[in-house]
Description:
Elements: E1 6-12, E2 25-30, H1 36-43, E3 62-67, E4 72-76, H2 87-103, E5 107-115, H3 122-133, E6 138-143, H4 153-163, E7 171-173, H5 182-193
Parallel strand pairs: 2-4, 2-5, 5-6, 6-7
Antiparallel strand pairs: 1-3, 3-4
The site of guanosine-5'-diphosphate has 20 residues, from helix 1.
Amino acid sequence: MEIKNAEFVTTIVDIKNLSKDYKNQVAFVGRSNAGKSTLINYLCNNSKLARTSKTPGLTKNVNIFSVNKNSFYIVDLPGYGYHQAGKQDEERWSTLLENFLTQSEDLKCVFALMDLRVKPNDDDRQMLKFCNYYCIPFVVLATKADKTKKLEREKLATDLAHSIGLARANVIITSSVDKIGKNEILTKLEQFLD
Ligand code: GDP
C-alpha cells in the first residue's frame, strides 16, 4: 500500500459526533510526546498534516484524516499520561478511549505508539487491555529508534514486547527522523483493512 493523499477532515471533542460516514477507521494512540503526530506526518508524506509539538499534552481533541480519497480514515486520539494533567483529565481520557472503542462503527485496528527507549507504564497497559477487551486488533509502534544504537534495537523491541505480554512480532520499530518502519506499518495496515 502507498499513501498518495491525506487530508484533514475534522476535529471532534465528543466521540458521539464521530460520523458514521467514516468507513475503515484506523486509530493512533499513545502516551503524550511518544511521537504520534510526527509519525502520522511521516506515513502521509506531509510534515504539516498533524500538528507536532515539543510541548507534551497539547492535543486534547480527536483529529480525523481522510487517506487516499476516503479509502480509510486515520483517527488521531489525544495523547495520555501527560504528567501535568490532573486526575480528572486522565479519567476523561480513558472514558474517551473506551467510548471510541465501543462506539466507533468501523474501527479496523489500533496503532499503539510507545517510545522504544521508555518502559511501558500502567497507562500503556490499560490501553492495550481495552483493545484486547473490545477485540480490536492492534500493533505496537516503537518510536524514536534513531535515538538508540542500531545493534540495540532488536533487544529493546523484544524487551518492550515482553514487558507488555506480547510476542516480538507485534512490535514494529519506527523512526520518523531516520524514516524507519513505514513499509512495515503500511503492510500491517493493509492486512487490517482487508
Ligand atoms: P505526540 O505528542 O505523540 O504527537 O508527539 P510529537 O509527534 O509531537 O513528538 C514529540 C517530540 O518528539 C517532538 O519534539 C518531535 O520532534 C519528537 N519526535 C517525534 N518522532 C521522533 C523520532 O522518530 N525521532 C526523534 N529523534 N524525535 C522524534
